[in-house]
Specification:
- The structure holds 2 protein chains of 2 kinds.
- By secondary structure, chain A is of the alpha+beta class.
- Chain A has helices spanning 2-20, 45-58, 77-80, 144-148, 152-158, 208-220, 243-254, 267-278, 363-369, 375-382, 386-398; strands spanning 71-72, 93-96, 113-114, 117-118, 133-136, 174-176, 190-191, 194-197, 289-290, 303-304, 312-314, 332-334.
- Chain A has one domain (35-398).
- Chain A is built from 11 helices and 12 strands.
- Chain A has a 3-stranded antiparallel beta sheet with strand order 3-2-5, with no helix packed on it. In chain A, strands 6-8-7 form a 3-stranded antiparallel beta sheet, with no helix packed on it.
- The longest helix of chain A has 19 residues, at 2-20.
- By secondary structure, chain B is mainly beta.
- Chain B has a single domain (2-415), classed as Porin (Beta Barrel), CATH 2.40.160.
- Chain B contains 2 helices and 20 strands.
- The chains are: A alpha+beta, B mainly beta.
């Protein structure tokens, strides 16, 4: 009898403790500033629901059953942008066939993108003889909604094509032709029927819909109402992904939060920020931009800190792969946003794969690959004291 | 308002867990009108005997005996601190039917309802014809004898709520296929030797084309046509040898291999023949005067994945688990004369993609490890009430920081 009482009491006590403290026994969430995932704040319930649908679609895995390939690079958006961050060399893609602004002359031979993987029984694509090529490592997809809401007027205001200020840095937009399904921004600025591209390594995608449709088609071999042509056969297919799903994915990327800066009060980090400005990194990696009106209210008229000017810059012969897109020259690359740089190893397998093709294995190595318009800044960096270099890199990792 | 929600959530949680405890305590034996054929708990059984070694009910002179088991639990899970709260899970309701048709002719079937009615499977429906104790023909839907868990998977036998990851995702337990083969046993003093060898239908292309985005033999079970035709047109071989010493324990070695892909259709060659193979080693023993049981299994998988396909689908996998379990209390409790309280620990690991990235020469990750402490209460041998805490870390393909998951589970499983 005594034991029954003790036994029942012990069981009751254990159940009581566990019931009241379940949350204490499970792993805690990482700090928000250490994650790239998550929506921007201020979304409505309806917008949050669309964000969640987009999140699910972003990570949908395509197989032979739902349209993958037969030639492809990856089988889901999430495969290239793990945790919404930068990608790994595993999913680095290859583009080929264009050397100047006259366009890609290898479209009929599988260009512009190499599908280097194939379903069993198929043979992956090869780069045709005579075609120049370049490798592109997947970028992070966070904060893209902010970049998409910057006005053309703002982007043009950062441009200095004739280097009138004499700082050695010009910066030009990539004027591109846009597909018929793209609706230009209300205040879009055109130049001989071409629009300002802002996404992609060469700024050859006009907006996130353009980028997403191309990725479905060229990366995964998935046809859509926007791009119904199969990459393998070249024939027009029924859409393999619903139109609503594409809109959900676009919305997801538009509303992914911007990376949250860290260690903002650290003295070394503050000194690093000063050095960043002193050696003119900030001339191209503009710290602060502002959004124009956006139909997503949470993105409208917001100041944000991406560290890019969305313009093309000549980066010198070492980074000239002999391939280009749109109106860009082969040595020109769009300034990549630096926000979230410190979190890159969390999506790149604990290592850095920086620059357009992942060739740089550290931030310092990436700085040293800079040339062309960035030569002066690189030289200034090389002349810094070691502790100043470390402060600068600490600042870059805090973004 | 927040404090009320907080208290309400905890009271609700408490009531749920208390409910499970009371439910377990108030079970009554309602089957006394039937003749109960008890499970044979002698130490002369191998894992391969598990299919018949279950408690059955025989009613009057009916030629058929029936049995089954049920498993249900509640759990609270959180991955990297994000939880969707509590869930109740009706994991399995399994029904057995066995019949001795005539002398040396036996039939057994096992019908399983998994996750409610989400999956309804015939796990076993085979006839045994005994020519000699060393030569029995088995034909029908049979359990492929790969590893130990696949053959010996009934919930009430295990003191852990979740099945081992390696036994369900490396070895795709429970795996059954249609085919035939032979099995037999030989006894010699303290030793028992057993073998099984079957030809069955095999896997299909889904093992390297699935929404998990990794090689998964378990995905090959989703093809409903596998009980009608072989995807490759070729049989899959499964063989096992096992040896048990009544004092030491059991050791089993098993191997399964077969072509999984549709390499030919209408006489036209579509692809080369691609095989999937598993080698498994399973063991169980009791040490320290049979106070502590050790049960484990390791398995290695080889799959012929085309070089031009995605490296996310690995050509090699490896995994295993070990359960350590001991009774800490064996005395009558609340009227159950042979009640036991046990504590134990499961350690498990599964690497879904063993290999090197072609692009970097770096290691491909995609693995998971887990540890699961358990406290279980067995009012009778055929019923177990289990309290588990599962902690596991999943590393993705690229080797990014792990996703950490904690799961608190309370549940029961019982033969009936």
């Amino acid at each position: 009898m005594k034991f029954k009482f003790i036994y029942s009491f012990v069981i009751f006590f254990i159940v009581l403790i566990v019931s009241f403290s379940c949350e204490k026994f499970v792993p805690a969430s990482p700090s928000d500033e250490d994650l790239l995932e998550g929506p921007i704040s201020g979304l409505s319930t309806q917008e949050i629901n669309q964000f969640l649908r987009g999140d699910e679609a972003f990570n949908e895995v395509f197989t032979t059953q739902n349209g993958l390939g037969p030639l492809f690079v990856a089988s889901s958006c999430g495969a290239c942008h793990s945790g919404d961050g930068k990608g790994h060399l595993l999913t680095t893609l290859t583009r080929f066939g264009q050397v100047d602004s006259t366009g890609n002359h290898f479209i009929g031979l599988g260009g512009p993108q190499l599908q280097n993987r194939a379903l069993p029984g198929y043979i992956p694509e090869q780069i045709p003889a005579g075609a120049s090529s370049s490798k592109f490592t997947p970028p992070a997809v966070t904060g893209l909604g902010y970049l998409s809401a910057v006005s053309d007027e703002s982007i043009l205001s950062y441009s200095d094509p004739y280097d009138l200020d004499g700082d050695g840095i010009s910066g030009v937009p990539n004027w591109i032709e846009i597909p018929s399904y793209i609706i230009p921004l209300p205040n879009a600025i055109t130049n001989r029927d071409r629009y300002i591209g802002r996404f992609g390594k060469k700024a050859a995608a006009y907006n996130l819909l353009h980028q997403t449709v191309n990725a479905y088609n060229q990366d995964m071999g998935i046809t859509s109402i926007f791009h119904p042509f199969d990459v393998y056969s070249g024939l027009e297919f029924d859409p393999e992904v619903p139109t609503q799903t594409i809109h959900d994915v676009v919305f997801y990327m538009q509303t992914l939060k911007a990376p949250i800066p860290r260690q903002q009060n650290d003295a070394e980090q503050i000194r690093g920020k000063e050095i960043f400005n002193q050696i003119n990194c900030s001339s191209c990696h503009l710290p602060t931009l502002k959004t124009d009106y956006s139909p997503i209210q949470a993105l409208s008229l917001k100041e944000f800190h991406p560290y890019t000017d969305l313009l093309l810059h000549d980066m010198g012969p070492d980074l000239d792969d002999g391939y280009t897109e749109g109106n860009a020259k082969t040595a020109e690359w769009r300034t990549p946003a630096l926000w979230g740089l410190g979190l890159s190893p969390n999506s790149q397998g604990g290592q850095y794969f920086l620059m357009h093709d992942g060739r740089a294995r550290s931030i310092e190595e990436a700085i040293l690959w800079h040339g062309g318009e960035a030569s002066n800044s690189k030289n200034l960096y090389q002349n810094l004291l070691q502790q100043d270099k470390e402060a600068l890199i600490k600042f870059l990792k805090s973004l | 308002m927040k404090i009320f929600t907080y208290i309400f959530k905890r009271i609700f949680c408490f009531l749920l867990l208390t409910y499970f405890k009371l439910e377990a305590n108030t079970q009554s034996d309602s089957i006394q009108f039937f003749q109960k054929i008890k499970e044979d708990t002698s130490r002369s059984k191998l894992n391969m005997d598990a299919v018949y070694n279950r408690p059955f009910l025989s009613v009057g002179k009916l030629p058929i005996a029936i049995g089954g088991y049920v498993e249900a639990n509640t759990e609270y899970a959180a991955k990297d601190g994000v939880s969707n709260g509590f869930s109740f899970q009706a994991r399995r309701l399994t029904l057995f039917f066995s019949s001795t048709i005539a002398k040396k002719l036996k039939f057994f079937s096992e019908l399983e309802f998994e996750d409610g009615v989400k999956e309804i499977n015939i796990e076993f429906a085979a006839m045994d014809i005994e020519f000699h104790p060393l030569l029995n023909l088995r034909a029908g839907i049979l359990m492929n004898p790969i590893g130990g868990f696949n053959q010996n998977h009934d919930g009430p036998r295990w003191d852990f709520i979740d099945r081992p990851i390696s036994a369900t995702q490396i070895i795709p337990s429970t795996l059954s296929n249609v085919g035939f083969g032979f099995h037999g046993k030989y006894y010699f003093n303290r030793w028992i030797f057993g073998y099984e060898a079957y030809l069955t239908n095999g896997f299909d292309d889904q093992i390297i084309s699935n929404s998990l985005n990794r090689t998964s033999l378990a995905e090959g079970k989703h093809n409903p046509e596998r009980f009608i035709k072989s995807n490759s047109g070729l049989p899959m071989f499964t063989g096992k040898i096992a040896v048990r010493n009544r004092k030491i324990g059991e050791l089993g070695l098993s191997y399964m291999t077969g072509v999984y892909n549709r390499w030919k259709q209408d006489g036209l060659i579509l692809d080369s023949k691609r095989s999937a193979s598993i080698f498994a080693l399973d063991f169980n023993t009791s040490l320290f005067n049979q106070r502590i049981d050790f049960v484990g299994e390791i398995a290695k998988v080889w799959v012929d994945v085309p070089d031009t396909y995605s490296q996310t689908f690995g050509a090699e996998q490896f995994g295993g688990f070990v359960d350590i379990l001991g009774a800490i209390y064996r005395k009558p409790i609340l009227g159950w004369d042979k009640a036991k309280i046990l504590i134990g620990l499961r350690l498990e690991y599964a690497d879904f993609n063993q290999g090197i990235f072609k692009e970097t020469d770096g290691n491909i990750s995609d693995h998971i490890w887990a540890m699961v402490p358990t406290i279980s209460f067995r009012p009778v041998g055929t019923t177990v009430i289990r309290f588990n805490y599962r902690y596991h870390q999943e590393i993705d393909l690229l080797g990014n920081p792990p996703a950490r998951t904690g799961i608190i589970q309370v549940g029961f499983s019982s033969y009936f």
